[in-house]
Amino acid sequence: MAFKAKKVKLIDFELETKAGSLASLIGVFREAKVNLRAVWGYEAGPGKGKCHVMTDDFDKAWTVAKEEGFKPTENWACWVEGDDKVGNWHEALLKASN
Description:
Layout: E1 4-16, H1 21-31, E2 36-43, E3 48-55, H2 58-67, E4 73-81, H3 88-97
Antiparallel strand pairs: 1-3, 1-4, 2-3
């Protein structure tokens, strides 16, 4: 299978680095029946976490998050799908840069 790459819109969040922070955010989407395509998070400094969410319904996810008191920001990423093969990611980045 060849790979495909596309630019995707993300919703970013800053979260506390404590147990349950990410679960609270994801629970808001579950209750609102917002489908999530990808979620990843990491520690971004002492006591600060960062989370990126890719969804099928950006507008609904954004609205729901704001209504629940979260402070979303908009971001973009390169989404790549394809075979797990050495060099595919490099090839995708070269194509995206042209």
